[in-house]
């Protein structure tokens, strides 16, 4: 953090204040003069921070009056192009581009695989050395994790390899998970969890137990393509519910859809949903839970980004679940490592079915990995890592926002999420990001076109951009290359 | 092997001779006198060995003539009680006992979990010290494997945790697999394989891509309960095809079933099928491949015991597959460790669908585990381990056979497999092993009742017994306890 500029620190402090309601929507921020005196900062620094907030669409500058807090606290207003109406349920067909994107590590990196995994050649520049520092801090956590898993591997009893893991997974790890979720308002115990091979497998299990072939499932639009893929493979029908880049799934649209169709499950990402980074307000959460009860519908909660909130960890939807209709799905892939292949599911009323289905389709999970993880959690290594990881992601989000502000055309709009790993970018109507996929790839740039996030023909002029990786020179160049490709 | 008795060495040599056709079916073995002279052994030793072969049902003693080789070279004749006719396809319903058994590590150990994982208290007795020696030799392989996986874990590049494994799995590991299968007559390359989370997941993928809900699947009877469970969960119908404890699935019965019903897939375990340990003769293999082509049916080959042949590794069915209709499924769980959670599938014409479905339901596998495994294979660690493991399993099979011969009632019959980890035991008609499950469990004995291996009401008087673990005093006591329970 030592490399953070004064204006950035002020900006962060202001953001926290806005998010924490120190200044309500419509309220005036302290004047530049007041702020200079209060924070012992130069006028240039304060102005820079205020203008950045304005550029993000968080505050509005009123001539001669000052800066006022705008309603959408964490985004430029990204309109919902093309999906403000709900289309009748239909089978899912997703283009092969999704498979290509998924096979390239879900395209959280704009650089194609091999290129990205090499350390950047520009590591002597100031920017790159900052990136390295950030990366080192975060890697310290991974190294500690690996030591923990390595210890578990070495300490396995001699003939442990003759036995399978218990069907629900390692009990110590499940106890650790239960403890974490109790912090976030969920009254859960180890027995409520079932360990899986990752969040994607949890979502698969959730859909398998709550739906039958041909059933209708509601999803966010734009929403995670992995879910659309699952629906397609399981022969389920999809109804896409409009989701705001700021406040996520629109509960009123869902209510109307429920009146029309027999929707058996709704997949929702309450915290930092991909691709937008939206966060469900409390009121929406309550509405969703009521609808689930009213229509006897499963709420499949994708909680994979929950731990990555820059301003704290929002309570999961599961915390308010009184009737066991929320199926909580998550994993360590986004918050810790994609290589552990350990996720979990808390399936409420479907718990026994899930346990059975997991046993039958997967048999077991790796015990030493679970044991290593459990120790890592118990020793506080995970919390330490999360603090660094969130800080790093916030810095990287800022790098990306700044870069877009400075280098990209003025007519783009994007969300500025307060957590997660990605933002949603809207380009002028004429741009077709799906059509540009191949051209970008041929120049070593992997993009996730907006169309992937819907099974209808929406979001052709949109794009998900990730800030999971430091914005090295190589990635800046890739973004510039992409700009060139998209402007043709 | 230093602890092996002379009669055991002779018996092994004779077994090899019979299996290798040194003496054909119906031929007379050398007389006791000839054998004594030839092998420099006492008459008692030779007689002991001959009588053991007789007890196994491998040779027949004809008064005044000598010992003659019998037709079934690797078993006591275990009749197919109750399943010699094919019953019409039906949905699968399997009792909760299966879930209980699966949750107890698939009951390859007659001792309940915790008890078994403790080292036996009787380790000072001669028998136990023999077991320990055997176990140590096998554990050396596991320790080497763990070192290899640990090295892979430590050598991961700093930010590797940000990337998912490639969809088909680690390329080096797939190349190693392809090389192994080329040894066994399969002309395969790394591109033909997809890494999975174990054989059970491979079977799941195979059924998902080759069948649709409601389709009919043929299975061996008796056959693996994990497959019956999968069929139930996927809403598939089962038709059980009689399988001999010696020669496995009866191809003629399958042919008749195919004339009657539209069977989309047949799950078959050509090598050391559980529960019997049967091995498909070449003629049956050829018939199966012809039927698959004639009826456009998928042959799902469960190859999980293939590497555990005491007299060598039988070629997989896949070796003869010219039309891509064989889906080869396997893993390292039986031959190496159940805790790796690494399996594979070579799905022939369904390869792309499998890759896609794996990506969508599991996303990825753990790279460091795959890398560690790949090195272990490359360095020859796996082959060394397999040699020890087969030797150990053969000794343990003999321990179990001897124990049954000496301690159990004369009216039992059992198969004596030449590979794998389990044998099939048939008790008198009146015995109900399923009913005895609870009573046995209450005394710390876990059994796998015969009924689990069929979805009809067959095999109530049968039992699978495993020789995966050394027959320690504790396990001998458990077997005696079981005898008591079953005789009530």
Automatic annotation (TrEMBL), chains A, B:
Family classification: In the C-terminal section; belongs to the class-I pyridoxal-phosphate-dependent aminotransferase family.
Ranges of residues in domain HTH gntR-type: 4-72
Keyword Nuclease in annotation: no
Keywords: DNA-binding, Pyridoxal phosphate, Transcription, Transcription regulation
Coiled coil location: none
SUPFAM superfamilies per the UniProt record, alphabetical: PLP-dependent transferases, Winged helix' DNA-binding domain
InterPro entries assigned: Aminotransferase_I/II_large (IPR004839), HTH_trans_reg/aminotransferase (IPR051446), PyrdxlP-dep_Trfase (IPR015424), PyrdxlP-dep_Trfase_major (IPR015421), PyrdxlP-dep_Trfase_small (IPR015422), Tscrpt_reg_HTH_GntR (IPR000524), WH-like_DNA-bd_sf (IPR036388), WH_DNA-bd_sf (IPR036390)
Name of the protein described by the UniProt record: GntR family transcriptional regulator
Pfam families tied to this protein: Aminotran_1_2, GntR
GO terms, molecular function: DNA binding; DNA-binding transcription factor activity; pyridoxal phosphate binding
């Amino acid at each position: 953090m030592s490399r953070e500029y004064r204006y950035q620190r002020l900006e962060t402090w202001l953001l926290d204040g806005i998010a924490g309601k120190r200044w309500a929507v419509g309220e005036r921020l302290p004047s530049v003069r007041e702020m200079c005196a209060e924070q012992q900062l130069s006028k240039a620094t304060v102005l820079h921070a205020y203008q950045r907030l304005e550029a993000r669409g968080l505050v509005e500058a009123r001539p001669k009056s000052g800066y006022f807090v705008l309603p959408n606290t964490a985004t430029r207003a990204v309109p919902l192009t093309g999906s403000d109406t709900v289309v009748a349920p239909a089978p899912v067909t997703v283009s092969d581009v999704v498979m290509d994107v998924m096979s390239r590590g879900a395209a959280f990196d704009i650089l194609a695989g091999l290129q990205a995994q090499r350390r950047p050649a520009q590591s002597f520049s100031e920017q790159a050395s900052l990136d390295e520092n950030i990366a080192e801090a975060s890697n310290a956590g991974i190294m500690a994790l690996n030591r923990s898993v390595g210890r578990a591997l070495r300490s396995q009893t001699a003939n442990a390899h003759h036995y399978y893991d218990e069907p629900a997974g390692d009990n110590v790890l499940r106890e650790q998970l239960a403890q974490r979720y109790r912090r976030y308002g969920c009254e859960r115990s180890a027995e409520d969890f079932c360990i899986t091979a990752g969040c994607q497998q949890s979502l698969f299990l959730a859909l398998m137990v709550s739906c039958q072939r041909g059933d209708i499932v509601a999803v966010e639009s734009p929403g995670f393509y992995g879910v659309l893929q699952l629906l397609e493979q399981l022969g389920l029908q999809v109804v896409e519910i409009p989701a705001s880049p700021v406040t996520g799934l629109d509960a009123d649209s869902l209510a109307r859809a429920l009146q029309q169709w027999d929707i058996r499950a709704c997949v929702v990402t309450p915290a930092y949903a991909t691709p937008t980074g939206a966060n469900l307000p409390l009121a929406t959460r309550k509405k969703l839970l009521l609808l689930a009860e009213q229509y006897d519908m499963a709420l499949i909660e994708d909680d994979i980004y929950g731990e990555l909130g820059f301003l704290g960890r929002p309570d999961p939807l599961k915390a308010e679940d009184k009737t066991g209709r929320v199926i909580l799905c998550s994993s360590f892939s986004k918050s810790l490592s994609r290589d552990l292949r350990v996720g979990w599911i808390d399936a409420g009323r479907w718990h026994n079915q899930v346990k059975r289905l997991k046993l039958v389709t997967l048999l077991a999970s790796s015990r030493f990995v679970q044991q290593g993880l459990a120790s890592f959690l118990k020793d506080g290594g995970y919390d330490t890592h999360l603090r660094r990881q969130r800080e790093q992601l916030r810095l990287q989000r800022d790098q990306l926002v700044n870069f877009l502000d400075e280098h990209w055309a003025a007519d783009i709009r994007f969300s500025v999420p307060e957590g997660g790993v990605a933002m949603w970018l809207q380009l002028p109507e004429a741009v077709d990001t799906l059509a540009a996929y191949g051209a970008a790839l041929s120049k070593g740039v992997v993009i996730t076109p907006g169309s992937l996030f819907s099974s209808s023909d929406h979001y052709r002029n949109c794009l998900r951009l990730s800030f999971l990786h430091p914005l090295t020179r190589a990635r800046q160049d890739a973004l510039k290359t992409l700009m060139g490709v998209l402007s043709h």
